[in-house]
Amino acid sequence: MMAYIALGLYFAGIVFAFKKEISYTLSAIGSVFALTEGIIGTFYPFTLGKVEILPKVYMELGMNHTSGVFMTIAAISWIAISIYSIDYGKFYPKDMALWLNLSVFGMMIIFMAKDGLTFITGWEMMTISSYLLILKHKGSFKEAFEFLAFGELSTVSLIVAFASLFLKNGNFSFAQNSGTVIFLIMSTFAFIVKMGIFPFHTWLIGAHAKAPSNVSALLSAPLTLMGVYGIFMALSLMPNLHLYNFEWWGILAIAFGSTSAFWGALHAVAAKQLKTLPAYSTIENNGMILAAIGISISVTSSGDPNLAIMSAFASVTTILIAISHTLSKSLLFLSVGHAKEALDEDNIDDLRGVWSAVGKIPALGILISGLSFSAFPPLVGFVGEWMLLESFFQSYKFSDTLARLVTTFGSVFIALAIGMAAFSMVKLVGYSALGYDHGKKARHIPSTMMRISELFLVILVFGFGIFVTFVLRYLGYSQFTSGLLGVPSPFLMISSVPIFGVVSPAFFAIVTAVLFIFPLAFYLKRRQKVRRVDSWNGGLPIEEGEYFSAPAYSAILEIVLKKVYMTKEKILENKANIDIVDFISVFYDALKYTVLKVEKVLSNVLMNGNVNAYVAYIFAVLVVIFLIVR
Amino acid sequence: MKILLGTFHKDVDYYIVQEDGVISIEIDPENVYTPNYAFVKSRDLIIGSDDPVRTGEGVFDFRYGPVTSGVGEAGIYHLYTYGERILSVDVDLSYKHRNISKRIIGLDFKSALKMVEKVCGNFTFSHSLAFTRAVESANGINVDSKSEKLRTTALELERIYNHLYVIYQLAQAAAQKVLTSHMSYLFEESLRMNKNFSGSRYLKGFNDIGGIKNFDERRFENLKSDLQRITSEFGELYKGVLESGNFLDRLYSTAVLNSSEAINIGITGPTLRATGIKEDLRLNDPKYKNLKIPTKNEGDSLARMEVRAEEIFESQRVILDQIESSDENNETGYEKGFGYCESPSGTVAYRVDVKDSKISDIYIVTPSFFAFKGIANALRGNIFTDFQFAVESFGMNFADGAL
């Protein structure tokens, strides 16, 4: 029922798109219903209705534990984005509200799909409306098109996957044991592309960076979450993985996941543009998610019952990182977008002084999300990354040498990624939220709803971290909560049974808060007496052109790792800069160039206005078709 | 190969030019090689790299100074960078500018000499010697051979302690703790040797117009033993230095200045000799017999250090030679009102006009002024961590460059 209300509200949002505020408000209310339905679905699976399209071909909606969990996570983000858009949407045309509602509508359909046809319907709704949303930003055609191209690559793979499902079962239904190996391979490929996993990540950078900020948040958090959900859904159709000797899939996932995490973190460090950095951070986080899935699948596929607990831990790790990423990344994009809009700047270097110029809440949003991505306890990001490392630490339990080797190297990549993520977030937070003020005045924009949305997410980033043990219980993994020494149950999180590693973010928060009271009291008492002076800078006041720039912060890495970054230090007409390239994009550029070249040749040969050539072409195609279909 | 070191106007333009160990004053601009003419003429107190790069994405001015640890005197290095890489350098000497030339005009010779000695503490004797030579040539004063001998000795002592200091600074920059401690000790010992010899750790007040009077010959004996001890200890250390890849790597290929660039700027002294050019004002000084001029071709910080190190041994030989040699009169002809000498870091030259036993006009050439330009150019393309190795290897002073 709630689901219908939510879908109905999104539909109303589409209808009322001419009145932007109402449309976004409807979307927000719809998302609250979606959230409620997600929570209900987590505990009480249900089906909503079945429509027969063709004989044996049904479209069916419903919800189970997995989709309920994922919809709950996504709905939180939808709520925040919708509330934020009430203010932010004022800078963009009315049809943005339409496509935003349609996109969320599509995502909800994906979560509730019980068959391939419904799934792909929702998938296309989401992809096309997201494409149109990216286009709302001027000059983003190329990026939007790239997004669409990769989106359709996912769709084509999904079509093949569902076709395989149909061949085996005679229908598209997502029933138990209905999966096939081809289905799993093709669908996971589609979802990996959607998650922006290396080397299919280039579309994500341009699209996230160029899109309006609310759309960036939507693309980065819930949309890539669809990929994660998709993998879970696909795997759930094949519960007896060990029968298929599927360990290689897990190992590949670990390899691609950890490479992606490393690559994303590496390029996030060197990012100069405000939204490129969070975009690469998305690649990094989705890489971590895939790596965790990989560990879980490797363990499950091995069929070793002693490792079931490890598989379960890796599995819940995936969900926790997904929660962490969805909340923190929504918060980051929304806060950065707020500041970006108010100061009208695109580069990290130019966005200084958010705290004083734009406001404390957006600055806090950038700070808290940055800290969360830097794995700062007790925030939710810390929990996710701790769990991931714990999963990797337990890889010694693998009996397979290859799996051990890949997890060992994978953990090195993940550790580097975590370190570099902190590096990149210090760059973003340090320069924008906490950096020296440029003295630039922010333009006054209506921002009450934006602030409410940001504050809502800040609280959740704290809350999900501190009370993670309750989240684990909610997800059905109470075996990973415990108590030890002075920490009462269930405030302690454990990574295995018997206990392997423990952490208690709640107690960390309590201890830190208590310890903080003394310096705070001391500070408050002496506040009046403290004399504030500028820090010493060679005896002269620091001039505007003397501030250490954001690109300079990461330049050392770009220079030292010049082979990896393909760094070029350029000096042209007395102007200098460092150019770096994501070498994967070089490959896609070459592909694009080749296609264009072939297209040009073909158009010259075949489409040259010569009637004889046309006729010959049509005839040749006809013959080929006859030969194929005969 | 002519090096333009200065220009001044008296009815016509005059050019101070160094060539083959001699400095002359030229009138005909056709005879003068003048790529650095504008630089020499303006004597701007802000010295920048050629083809400066001060803008671009992320490019900012990393201001180092005027009161910062690592910059020994009040001066600023504006290092333009997009992070790590030094794109361009502006050196601001203005904080140390004391308008020395103007202050000297109108002073009597004694007072002027006192002020000249204070131009730059660690080049005290070089300035004093060039100035006294200028005043002596202006007034037609002949200096006795003993004084010349003492002057030569003092000049070489100044070279030794300055070179020791430069190597000490380089060792410190490379965090070579043991070498730093040893070099610091040797530097202190060399100052004490100066004190024993001249009465001043920095050889201040030792020289005088017309010659050095009242020198106790017995001081030579102490000098001989002190000198042998210091140079022998340094010799041991230097052997170790040449085997320390860790240290040498920091200097090798750092802040390279090639010979043509150095000449175009007006660089003299060990910095020029480290580019392969055998140019030294002592070459034509009859007091120096069989002088060996060490040169290196690389033009980097390592080459500059090597030249200085080898010069320490040569200076020791020269001093011992002076102690042993008998007093003989050697004619050293300077143009009227003109005097110069080879300071530890290059040419110091004074040109004075004299009227009523007072200085009526003065023009001073110092090596540091050119060295800063050399630093500004050589630092381009290096990274921040090279900075200290580059700067210290030139052995220049803000006080000397700014005047």
For the record, give the distance between the C-alpha atoms at the N and C termini of chain A, rounded to a whole number: 51 Å
Q: pLDDT under 50 segments of chain B (min length 5)?
A: none
Largest interface comes to: A-B, 29 and 26 residues
**What is the chain-wise order of helices and strands of chain A?**
HHEEHHHHHHHHHHHHHHHHEEEHHHEEHH
Strand content of chain B: 15-25%
The total of helices of chain A stands at: 23
Radius of gyration of chain B: 20 Å
Briefly characterize the structure.
Helix content of chain A is 69%, strand content 6%. With 630 residues, chain A is mostly helical.
How would you explain this protein's 3D organization?
- The complex is a heterodimer of chains A (630) and B (403).
- Helix content of chain A is 69%, strand content 6%.
- Chain A has 23 helices and 7 strands.
- Chain A has a 3-stranded antiparallel sheet with strand order 3-4-5. Chain A has a two-stranded antiparallel ribbon with strand order 1-2. Chain A has a two-stranded antiparallel ribbon with strand order 6-7.
- In chain A, helix 11 packs parallel to helix 15 and helix 15 runs parallel beside helix 17.
- Chain A starts with a helix and ends with a helix.
- Chain B is α+β, with helices and mostly antiparallel strands.
- Chain B has a domain of 256 residues: Cytochrome-c3 Hydrogenase, chain B, CATH 1.10.645.
- In chain B, the strands form 3 sheets. In chain B, strands 4-7-6-5 form a 4-stranded antiparallel sheet, covered by helices on one side.
- The longest helix of chain B is centred in the middle third of the chain and has 29 residues.
- The chains are: A mainly alpha (630), B alpha+beta (403).
- At the A-B interface, helix 20 and strand 7 of A face strand 5 of B.
